[in-house]
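task queued by scheduler; priority normal; single chain, no ligands, no partner chains; default sampling; output format set to structure tokens
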Amino acid sequence: MRFKSGLALILLIGGGLPAAAQSNCQMPIAPAAPDGKTSTQAQLMAAAGDARSFIAQSDVYQQCLVDYVKAQKDQAAKDKTTFDTSIQDDVMKKIKENQDDKVKVGGDINAAITAFKASHPQ
């Protein structure tokens, strides 16, 4: 009997968590760019692929977050309740952080490519 009341307590507490914390969107991990002066062409090409993959995964992540907010708004409308704007605020913060990471990853890989070309003249 103790297990059931503990489970009910967990479900009750979990139900009170912010809705954004319950989102299934997985933030991708930003890859580190190699040192363009010392890396091989193969390493640089692999890093460029990692950067492109990260940027693509970030687009999916950001869309997932947007879709999540829309679903929460739709649910609030369906339930005739007020939408908790902190959900949208939290999501917008996550999108901005991820967008900043995308810009950094793109800039870092471009800088590595530039450094590689400068240190490996043809």
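post-processing summary
- The helical segments are 2-15, 41-79, 85-119.
- The chain has one domain: 20-119.
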